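Response to reviewer comment R2.3. The reviewers asked that we include at least one raw input/output pair. We reproduce the pair for Probable malate:quinone oxidoreductase here without editing.
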Amino acid sequence: MADNKLPASSGDEVDVVLVGAGIMSATLGVLLKELEPSWSQVMFERLDQPAQESSSPWNNAGTGHSALCELNYTPEKNGKVDVTKAKNINEQFQVSRQLWTSLVENGTLTDPKAFINPVDHTTFAQGPDQVAFMRRRFEALEKEPLFRGQELIEDEARFSEYLPLMAEGRDFSKPVSAIRNPNGTDVNFGALTKQYLAALSDKGTEIRYGHEVTGLKRNGSKWIVTVKNTHTKDVRTLVANFVFVGAGGDALPLLQKARINEIRGFGGFPVSGQWLRCTNEEVIAKHDAKVYGKASVGTPPMSVPHLDTRVIDGQRGLLFGPYAGWNMKFLKKGSNLDLIKSLRPANLPSMMGVGVQEMGLTKYLITEVLKNFDARIESLREYVPNANPDDWELIVAGQRVQVIKPMKAPTFGTLEFGTAVINSWDGTIAGLMGASPGASIAPAVMISLIERCFGKHMGKWAPKLKELVPSYGTKLADDPALFDQVWDASQKALKLER
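Raw output as returned:
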């Protein structure tokens, strides 16, 4: 029986098991170490390195999502631009900046330039209708403290000066405009994850690569965690007081194995992605912004095109996309049986209902899958009119699993494009599913998870959370003076001054 146990530094029982060595598990692990340093932690990662799925810098756009440029966060209703979602997402990203600032100041994070750099966030409009909407959007956001500093660009000369790569060869008889916000950032979530994990390891967290969690079984108020060594195939178990499933697309199957009622009826719809990556340094040097446009009518939010400046390992890069694809894997390095294995009698109605209701998504995916390289270059030319195919290569991005929520009258399930946290009634297990804005708002999401799962500790932990995140319990949009204070501190600590 002893051979069937997985030794941990604290014995066969640990306080916290973290599944997956990506940004979500790493963020939660760091927060819990700050709040309760004495608790033992073990992290399991099925791959041999950290941050190789959604957290990898080439698997996502690296947009520190703060709703500065994403048009789908500012929908127009009855002629009025609704900025509610944009404000909420910006508030959440400010939590990220504050936490990172505190962790740089206390030495947990050692090199902010490795994971965050200033890059303008810019919104791009084409045609009279979009240009008119852009003015309304600018005016609506101009009133909000968290969106200060933006610039509306409608003049051809200024557009050409600011976005030379997008201006070269453009027919300006079709009106264009842009909203520039100089307060945006590019974030390398892979580098951030690695700094988190280095700090956790130094503080006693065991991180086991090449170990896949294959089973979760309740044992009273605890969990029996079954783990397989992917190299030796040895299978062992340990007992955990709390389990967090931050395994990206694999979160749904693992939560299903845990058999918690809260996951009942949930499904997942996998969507793969591709980017065009620029290989010409001269072209890369002509563009310095993350430019988001408007998705075509009838297409989902994931189809929003963007031309992204990246800063990865000290090198500038340029991406355009995403181009969606489809396969049945829940992870980029997963199995083609993932989708089939996730089907349950309880989630089949929701899955089938979404399939019927989301015909626009189905049509979009079929169109995207059928695109060849030349067709993708034509899409790029809406942004870069003089794009030379020889300057670009097609790369595979990360794999997303969009959340399908259980059927609820009058619908038969709903497809969600955001992030969803699922936890058991007693708070002993939780998992995160979904996609954008995901990694950008990981600290806010994990703090909310801590409140939900560790309520009895919050009286003790709240002051520490307030120290780590000065706006904790308040909204910066309602306190411009506090916003100025934390903004200035983060600009300095994260070395974001230009």
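The first strand starts at residue 13 and ends at 19. The first helix runs from residue 23 to 35. Further pairs are available on request from the corresponding author.
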